[in-house]
Model the fold of this input.
Amino acid sequence: MIGASAPISPPMASQEIEALSSALARLPGLGPRSARRAVLWLVKNREQALPALLEALDAVSETLLECTTCGNVDTSNPCDICTDPKRDSRALCVVEDVADVWALDRARLFRGRYHVLGGKLSALDGIGPEDLNIASLMERVADGAVDEVVLAMNATLEGQTTAHYLAERLDEHKLRITQLAHGLPVGGELDYLDEGTLAQALRARRPVE
Done:
């Protein structure tokens, strides 16, 4: 009598495809399953999709720069926002991350300029003021060329702690300090909010207490 055969394992993808899946899975918003679906789509559409994707990645890799003025990421330094003459140079919006700049600017309601902190204060993670772009922010407002600073921190405990710290530091300068108000849910992050919510928060910004 022939014994029952062991179950046959499904064939594994090649090492190269597995490596691509693993690389995509590390991107924000993509888990292992989503990454595999993306790889499968790329494989099925490789003649049209892969050359364009590789060309775009190569171009970004060669030209991407960090703006030494505000911390934004662009293909020029200073970035297009900092050099745009139509923007109000006397209004400065402070955000935690580059993604927040893109989210707010997508709403096209704030016509000033930005400053990226590169994170938020967090005692648990060992992130203090010296780890953020706070010194450069103080330099930008020290000459009196800025009338208003909008503290657009995420509505998290760390974000609000950062906002209060900045408000205290900025209080020595003669400028208006405001923060985003109505429309931001507690725990919400700017990059995940819709444009209507961002628009309401910008319009209803209020003085920092």
Summary: Residues 121 and 161 are 7 Å apart (CA to CA). Residues 6-11 have pLDDT under 50 and may be disordered. The chain is about 40% helix and 10% strand.
